[in-house]
Design brief:
Distance between the termini: 34 Å
Number of domains: 1
CATH superfamily: P-loop containing nucleotide triphosphate hydrolases
CATH architecture: 3-Layer(aba) Sandwich
Oligomer: single chain
Structural class: alpha/beta
Catalytic activity: dTMP + ATP = dTDP + ADP
Bound molecules: adenosine-5'-diphosphate, thymidine-5'-diphosphate
GO molecular function: dTMP kinase activity
Order of helices and strands: EHEHHEHHEHHEH
CATH class: Alpha Beta
EC number: 2.7.4.9
Number of strands: 5
Number of helices: 8
Enzyme class: transferase
Function: Phosphorylation of dTMP to form dTDP in both de novo and salvage pathways of dTTP synthesis.
Length: about 210
Amino acid sequence: MTQQTTAVPGKFITFEGIDGAGKSTHIGFVVDFLAARGKTVVSSREPGGTRLGEQLRELLLHEKMHVETEALLMFASRREHLAQVIEPGIERGDWVLSDRFTDASFAYQSAAGGMDRDKIMALAQWVHARRWPDLTLLFDVPVEVARQRLDAERTLDKFEQEKADFFSRCRNEYLRLAGEHPGRIVVIDSTRSIDETRAAIAAALERLL
Ligand SMILES: Nc1ncnc2c1ncn2[C@@H]1O[C@H](COP(=O)(O)OP(=O)(O)O)[C@@H](O)[C@H]1O
Ligand SMILES: Cc1cn([C@H]2C[C@H](O)[C@@H](COP(=O)(O)OP(=O)(O)O)O2)c(=O)[nH]c1=O
């Protein structure tokens, strides 16, 4: 008789926030925090996370294009990411972390870019109707703080060069989404020190363990 062992499904955690909010700073902490609790962690990102997705990322971050083309390519990258990384990881019992997911498409392509919200929702339903994150950490800072942090640090890509009102619309949409999905999205005040921010992240993660 063949015995089938089915792994307990893992979890899916996403990181969101406007550029410069502090997501990347804290992903390593989350990896270590979960690994120390015995979890196998897969850390990935969007756009990207697969060979094809990383090629799409290059185009998305550097080429100007119609906002709907941008959304379609974001979801093309997402479809591949779900097929190759997210779904197999969760099925194995891993904890899959993604630096951005569909909330970013609502914030950037719809609220800031002007694309019809229903079209983003239609793409989300098509690409991952039944798969939404178990937890989304939303790193929230005022636009001016994010801008100062970015300016101090790096060469800016296509999105990072956008003006303050673009990021205000992104931030407002993220906060609106957090209000709509309070069980999934935890708002992390990222204006505080890195240690204080970590404590808030740890508290949010404890709820999933
Ligand atoms: N709590 C914080 N206090 C001060 N600076 C921070 C804090 N969090 C992040 N930073 C700095 O802000 C910059 C942008 O952070 P980063 O994590 O790259 O943002 P994101 O990935 O959200 O674009 C980095 O230089 C980082 O060191
Ligand atoms: C996933 C996703 C990202 N983006 C944008 C937001 C970011 O400006 C950019 C790349 O995200 P990010 O990985 O946060 O950039 P960085 O590594 O430079 O911090 O892609 C969208 O516009 N829509 C999306 O659906």
